[in-house]
Design goal:
Blueprint lengths: L1 E3 L2 E3 L6 H4 L5 H9 L6 E2 L11 H12 L12 H12 L10 E4 L1 H13 L5 E6 L4 H8 L3 E8 L4 E2 L1 H11 L3 E5 L11 H13 L3 E5 L24 E6 L12 E4 L2 H14 L5 H13 L1 H24 L12 E2 L10 H12 L1 E2 L1 E2 L11 E4 L4 H19 L2
Parallel strand pairs: 3-13, 5-6, 5-8, 8-9, 9-10
Antiparallel strand pairs: 1-2, 4-11, 6-7, 10-11, 12-15, 14-15
Helix pairs in contact: 3-10, 4-10, 5-6, 5-9, 11-13
The structure holds pyridoxal-5'-phosphate (PLP).
Length: 395
């Protein structure tokens, strides 16, 4: 039973899809922090840098020039052209007409799922992964099938993946690199294996590359780089993290025309168009803010190295992330579920991090720390965790 505006609602009045999902575990934990006095949160994927000045000024100019009206559904041509150029840096080729600007990556994900999924269709989702993939599937009454990410590198077991594709016959599979929550990037070898699987099987790949600008390796790999499977691949990405503009809501979807025409229909009835002012901001970001992005990336890399070293020194089993701004230590030695671990850490050490179980069954035994926070906050949190771990070790 639900209460909306004081009115009692039977759950039968709510769609099966909406009844089957919950508020994300990330937000659930973030909301708990507010209630614990003195707690510091390392829960959110929100960079602590302000949006670059040039982006701010471009948005002010856009307001003054009255660019506050609907744009075309797919978004302004200049931005789509600029994204097309930008993607070439990653060896990814989409023309302006194969790109649709969305209200954040989140809208992009739901648009793709709505365009592809019928009730009962199966979706192959990585475990652990960003919770939206499983939730969007359930919302549309699809069935979630997971493939595990294993070992210290959170790697795909290609036998498992191929068996699931052959036996479960999912409509599409989700790939998500650099990964939230593990920080893994796809290797050249694994990208080649994925290419072969997609080519040889009746499967579409939806690849979420939200953190592509935050890859700390020299080379970037993605299944969207292969021309011979481009009719089987859809890319979703965006600028929330790249330009630290999470609240401005600019994402994008790339797909060849047979997918794009349907994605555009869904997008039209969901959002009409992404916020016009923010589109001009993202355009400026792409044209003139490479230095700001590089600065943020260097800072994240320093913070990553710092948090990794501190955790290692405390005795955590943890892998150095190669992308995004999350680190995913193993907490299983503490003999608690990840939820219990994070509750206890929050109440006793006053540090909030996210239980690995919020990202799927295989996330159990881990916890996600976001290092998109200031060095000062990270230092304080690491000191608090260190003291707390010492107490746990002596229990
Ligand atoms: C992997 C991944 N994809 C998509 C999104 C959604 O991004 P946006 O804020 O642009 O909707 C996030 C946000 O954290 C994410 O981590």
């Amino acid at each position: 039973m639900y209460f909306i505006g004081g009115i009692k609602m039977e759950s039968s009045k709510i769609s099966k899809g909406a009844n089957s999902i919950q508020i994300s575990g990330i937000r659930k934990f973030y909301n708990k922090v507010i209630k614990v006095q003195g707690a510091i949160s390392l829960t959110l994927g929100q960079p602590d840098f302000p949006v670059p000045d040039k982006v701010k000024r471009a948005m002010v100019r856009a307001i003054e020039d009255n660019k506050t009206v609907y744009t075309s559904n797919a978004g302004i041509d200049e931005l789509r052209n600029e994204i097309s150029k930008y993607l070439k840096r990653f060896n990814i080729n989409y023309s302006k007409d194969e790109i649709c600007i969305t209200a954040g990556g989140t809208e992009g994900i739901l648009d793709i799922f709505q365009a592809l999924l019928n009730k009962g269709d199966k979706v192959l989702v990585p475990d652990p992964s960003f919770p939206a993939y499983a939730s969007c599937t359930k919302l549309l009454e699809g069935e979630v099938i997971t493939y595990g990410l294993y070992g210290s590198e959170f790697s795909i077991d290609f036998n498992e993946l191929e068996n699931k594709i052959k036996n479960e016959k999912p409509k599409f599979m989700v790939l998500s690199y650099p990964s939230n929550p593990t920080g893994t990037v796809i290797s050249k070898e694994d990208n080649e294996k994925l290419h072969k699987i997609i080519k040889d099987n009746d499967i579409i790949a939806v690849t979420d590359e939200m953190y592509s600008a935050l890859c700390y390796e020299d080379d970037y790999y993605s299944v969207s780089q292969y021309e011979d499977i481009r009719e089987k691949v859809i890319v979703v990405s965006g600028f929330s993290k790249t330009f630290s503009m999470t609240g401005l809501r600019i994402g994008y979807v790339c797909a060849e025309s047979s997918f794009m025409s349907s994605i555009l229909k869904v997008h039209q009835y969901t959002t009409t168009c992404a916020p016009s002012i923010s589109q001009y901001g993202a355009l400026e970001g792409l044209k003139n803010c490479d230095e700001d992005v590089q600065y943020m990336k260097n800072e994240f890399k320093k913070r990553r190295d710092y948090v990794y070293k501190r955790l290692k020194d405390m005795g955590f089993e943890v892998r150095l992330p190669k992308g995004a701004f999350y680190i995913f230590p193993d907490i299983s030695r503490f003999g608690m579920t990840s939820e219990q671990f994070c509750e206890k850490l929050l109440n006793e050490a006053k540090v909030a991090i996210v239980p690995g179980s919020a990202f799927g069954e295989k996330g159990e035994g881990f916890a996600r720390i976001s290092y998109a926070y200031s060095k000062k906050e990270l230092e304080e949190c690491m000191n608090r965790i260190e003291k707390w771990v010492e107490v746990q070790n002596n229990l």
